[in-house]
Amino acid sequence: MTKIGIYYGSTTGNTQDVAEEIARKLNITKEDIHDVAKANVNFSPYDLILFGSSTMGFGDLQDDWEDYIDKVKDADLSGKKVALFGCGDSSSYSDTFGDAIGKIYQVIKDKGCQVIGHVETKGYTFDDSEAVIDNRFIGLLIDNDNESDLTDDRIDNWVTQLKNEI
Question: Taking every pair of C-alpha atoms in the chain, what is the biggest distance, in angstroms?
Fold first, then answer.
């Protein structure tokens, strides 16, 4: 059985809600859901690590991630699978939608881990994003401000995809 840990940063509660919904659908216990404001960087218990961050302002990491990302830079992720998810506003910030998970990806991409959970951009409305690699999002993006009606289906589809990729 694959051991999964979720690490998220949330200012308004949207990313925490998404993390908890993903955890529920993957049967992850509360002990394996970590707020990066208080979390350590011992990823050794996990086979799959989910990193989640909202994108703040004009493409910035969520505040707690600003400190935590430096710890992730020094962490050992070799042999792990990693999936990214995030929240953003594709209307007001259409040119920086989901940039936070793009920033996390840049830190982890050369750390010996396998990044899974890429998502097609079809069905999203945005202009630009650091989270787009090879014409796909590097992870799941949720816009509860403008597209909350799509959130449940997007999470369901992503969780199914993750199960197939692990």
Answer: 41
Which domains are seen in the chain, by residue range?
Answer: 4-165 (3.40.50.360)
Q: Is 64 helix (H, G, I), strand (E, B) or coil?
A: helix
Q: What are the tokens at 19?
A: 């993390």
pLDDT digits (tens, 9 = 90+) for 108-137: 999 999 999 999 999 999 999 999 999 999
Distance CA(112)–CA(147), nearest Å, equals: 34
Question: 117-151: string of b/e by CB count within 10 Å (b at 16+)?
Answer: bbbebeebebeebbbbbeeebbbbbbbbeebeeeb
Supply φ then ψ for residue 133, to 5 degrees: -130, 130
Give me the half-sphere count of Cα atoms (radius 13 Å) on the Cβ side of residue 32: 20
Tokens 């881990």 belong to: 113
CA distance 166 to 161: 9
pLDDT digits (tens, 9 = 90+) for 145-155: 999 999 999 99
